[in-house]
Amino acid sequence: MRRQAIAGLLGGVILAQGALAEEPSGDAEAGRAKAGICRTCHGLNGYAKMPLAPHIGGENALYIENQLHAFHDGTRVNEMMSVVAAGLDDEAIADLAAWYASQQIEASLPPGTAADRAPEACVDCHGANGVAVIEEAPNLAGENATYIRQQLEAFRAGRRASDVMQPIAAAMDDAAMREAADWYASINLEIAPAP
Ligand code: HEC
Ligand code: HEC
Prior knowledge:
Cytochrome Bc1 Complex, Chain D, domain 2; disordered N terminus; mainly alpha; binds heme C; two-stranded antiparallel sheet; 10 helices; globular
């Protein structure tokens, strides 16, 4: 029921993004070979090695593709990623997305925490444990709290575009953003080492 309602809500967005990147078609092994330039910041398995780089291992391939295209096209801007993505063509983007999406992840709540204390406004799409429930949404589990807050602020200010997240972030004050960011940052994320 719930999933259907959300699918309905997101229908238009899914179609719009579908035009950008259709069914993911990358080659994970080719992506592994191209991930050498990513590993200093995101690790070879997608477990980030620097505080403001997000974990990308185990994200949905379509989400990774969309973000790399957005950095490449300039609709999402970051001093590091814009430079990196400028050098990637469609094939490299698809292959890298396939590689990072193929990683196995496990997310667990900190001991003594109950899932029903998760931020209610987020769980339908990002899950209580930060593992995405719908294909188009990213995992938030174990991301750095500052990274999460910066992204929410970027959606609120319109610096990062998303038909879904902009209205949600617009309705949040700084305290709500901090609370949601702290929840997801507190989750323990493990990514299996790259084979
Ligand atoms: C010098 C460090 C650095 C390198 C190298 C780098 N990244 Fe990033 N990456 C970042 C940072 C920092 C962000 C967060 C950008 C922001 O704040 O919007 C990011 C964000 C991303 C995102 C968005 C994730 C999300 O959850 O929205 C993807 C996907 C990504 N990088 C993939 C890659 C890939 C693939 C490569 C290699 C081709 C790569 N990155 C190389 C630092 C780096
Ligand atoms: C209806 C589904 C939905 C709900 C509810 C939702 N999100 Fe999202 N969220 C998304 C989608 C889809 C994206 C990807 C946007 C894009 O393509 O850039 C996203 C992206 C994000 C990002 C960027 C993550 C990254 O790796 O860069 C953050 C942070 C985020 N959401 C936080 C939240 C928080 C906190 C809440 C609750 C207050 C919330 N979201 C509620 C669907 C949702």
